[in-house]
Amino acid sequence: MVKLDNEKGSICISSEVITWLAGDAATRCFGVKGMAGRAKENGLVQLLRRESMTKGVTVRSNDDGSITIELHIVVDHGVNLAALSESIMNEVSYKVSSATNVPVRQVDVFIDSMILD
Fold first, then answer.
1. What is the largest CA-CA distance in the chain?
2. Taking a C-beta distance cutoff of 8 angstroms, is the pair 36, 47 a contact?
3. How many CA atoms lie within 13 Å of 98's alpha carbon, on the beta-carbon side?
4. pTM
5. Under a CB-based contact definition with an 8 Å cutoff, are residues 92 and 22 in contact?
6. How far is 90 from 35, CA to CA, in rounded Å?
7. Is 32 exposed, middle or buried (0-12, 13-18, 19+ CB in 10 A)?
8. Which of 31, 36, 39, 99 is deepest in the core (most CB within 10 A)?
9. What DSSP line would sit under 101-115, residue for residue?
């Protein structure tokens, strides 16, 4: 939960809202197949359905009021991974901070799997 105070009162934004915004922004980037999740039984990476995309996102609040976002994704084969990761970092940071007015300190992208089409 992130709490923003201003002269008129307080606004509380749940972590679930931020994870949904981050997951949505990441999955809209070219080359991203979807969010990744690990199966508890065997630890294998699986591609999550659109309804479950928040499971591949972790949001942590920092002491200075900013947030750090961690994304686990599955990508298409043949994309430039460095360029894709940088694009995701920029897009997620922009979308989350503009929608919530919460500063994003860091976006960490973990590429867990690649899909061959």
1. 53
2. yes
3. 7
4. 0.86
5. yes
6. 17
7. buried
8. 36
9. ---EEEEEEEEEEEE
Please, what are the domains in the chain?
Answer: 2-115 (3.30.70.1350)
Q: Is 110:69 a contact under the CB 8 Å cutoff?
A: no
- Cα–Cα distance, 70 to 50 (Å, whole number): 18
The pairing of beta strand 67-76 with beta strand 57-61: antiparallel
Distance CA 27, CA 19 (A): 12
Please count the residues of the chain: 117
Neighbours of 65 (CB within 10 A): 13
Task: Give the pair of three-digit tokens for residue 32.
Answer: 């991203």
Q: What token pair was written down for 34?
A: 């979807």
What local confidence, expressed as pLDDT, does residue 41 receive? Answer: 66
How many CB atoms sit inside 10 A of residue 31's CB?
17
Tokens 């901070």: give the residue. Answer: 97
User: How far apart are alpha carbons 72 and 34 in whole angstroms?
Assistant: 9
- pLDDT tens-digit readout, 49-101: 666 667 789 999 999 989 999 999 999 999 999 999 999 999 999 999 999 99
